[in-house]
Write a structure and sequence with these properties.
alpha+beta, 7-stranded mixed beta sheet, 6 helices, 9 strands, globular
Length: 193
């Protein structure tokens, strides 16, 4: 590899360190209260996510079957810079009306939930996002729709929690694509031969 290209790759790899990001092998969970304020922050390891008892303690008997899956994009840089740098994240709405956003960031996997759709779309860790816009949406129309339990179980069993953010190989876009593949495969199983 030419030295200038090697230096560019090293510079890109150092971006998270430059801004002080430290990868956490947990799902960072944020809950919004009725006033739209980020109320709790908890970290869940892979073993906690695969435990039905942990999930039940978090959400009780709420129906977490996914009805809509919406992919959003948000600008990373101010639009006045005229540079197209986008971050992607997924928002789920469930049969109970609970809304979730999930995304891969430089410091880990972030899960937010609220009864208010706008909280998880327009805010990130309690602060305003930069111009979020809907990219794609999917209506989950199946006899047995996947639930948020499936998403959390996938996170606990896949390598997502241990794979650090990488601008090229393990970024928010790849995370969104892989999660959509899991959800759509479960909601539309293959036709038997």
């Amino acid at each position: 590899m030419p030295s200038f290209l090697s230096k560019a790759v090293d510079a890109v790899r150092s971006i998270p360190k430059y801004f002080g990001y430290q990868w956490k092998e947990v799902v960072q969970e944020y809950t919004y209260n009725a006033y739209g304020q980020a109320e709790n922050k908890r970290d869940f390891t892979a073993s906690c996510l695969s435990s039905t008892a942990t999930i039940s303690a978090l959400f009780g008997s709420v129906n977490l079957d996914i009805v809509y899956l919406i992919v959003f994009k948000a600008n990373v840089l101010p639009s006045s810079w005229q540079v197209n740098a986008e971050h992607r994240f997924i928002v789920f709405t469930t049969k109970s009306g609970m809304c979730f956003s999930i995304e891969k960031q430089e410091d880990g996997i972030i899960l937010q939930h609220s009864s208010n759709f706008n909280d998880v779309v327009n805010k990130f860790k309690g602060t305003a996002r930069r111009e979020p816009k809907e990219k794609n949406s999917f209506f989950i129309d199946s006899f047995k729709p996947p639930s948020m339990y499936v998403v959390l179980d996938w996170l606990s069993k896949s390598n997502q929690l241990t794979t650090k953010y990488n601008l090229i190989h393990a970024n928010c876009n790849r995370f969104v694509r892989e999660l959509i593949a899991v959800i759509t495969a479960l909601s539309h199983p293959p036709i038997p031969k």
